[in-house]
Amino acid sequence: QKEVEQNSGPLSVPEGAIASLNCTYSDRGSQSFFWYRQYSGKSPELIMSIYSNGDKEDGRFTAQLNKASQYVSLLIRDSQPSDSATYLCAVTGGNQFYFGTGTSLTVIP
Amino acid sequence: GAGVSQSPSNKVTEKGKDVELRCDPISGHTALYWYRQSLGQGLEFLIYFQGNSAPDKSGLPSDRFSAERTGGSVSTLTIQRTQQEDSAVYLCASSPRIGGGTPTYTDTQYFGPGTRLTVL
Predict the structure, then answer these.
(1) Is A32 in Cβ contact with B42 (below 8 Å)?
(2) DSSP code per residue over B2-70
(3) DSSP 3-state of A17
(4) Is the CB of residue B99 less than 8 Å away from at least one CB of chain A?
(5) pLDDT tens digits, residue range B98-119?
(6) Which residues in chain B touch residue A3, judged by CB atoms under 8 angstroms apart?
């Protein structure tokens, strides 16, 4: 059973702060890693994808991958109230994407 | 352009009835996934279609669940003899993958709005 673990939160940060979201996975063979954002009542939308160790930056978002530790994280700089959502970590294995249960983030104005 | 569409948006049914959920992927996308999301839970993989290859049905929870994809485009997820534990949001996603094999970082999944199924 491939597992993806996330802290369910809720995680609260003040506006302008850095939000740090973490994810661990069990399958060492996983090759691709994704972060999705899901607003309440909406479907997930892709924020970042990463496949090699290190950092990948896109605007206010930075994904970090450490395959040795089986750990992937998402940093959100200068957090905005509009970033308040549930963040899903996804990991590939075979033909499938395995999703974590998500971390609920609230950015307080 | 048009995104992934799903119908109906909401479905209320009685226990024991059959339901059909429809997904229209983005035109030209060869890969199509069905997921189930229960309240407060992550996405549970159900089934994966890639082009004309045999689908990966390994996520279907029981033989009451089946899915087909006609002409490599529209997909229908059928749940027979629905049970209360089938109540969830059913999400469809499509991806412009070419060929099969393990998904890669370039495979962006575009999700539809989902169908909320309630079994009374």
Answers:
(1) no
(2) ---EEE-SEEEE-TT--EEEEEEPPTT--EEEEEEE-TT--EEEEEEEETTSPPB-TT--STTEEEEEG
(3) coil
(4) no
(5) 655 666 656 778 999 999 999 9
(6) none
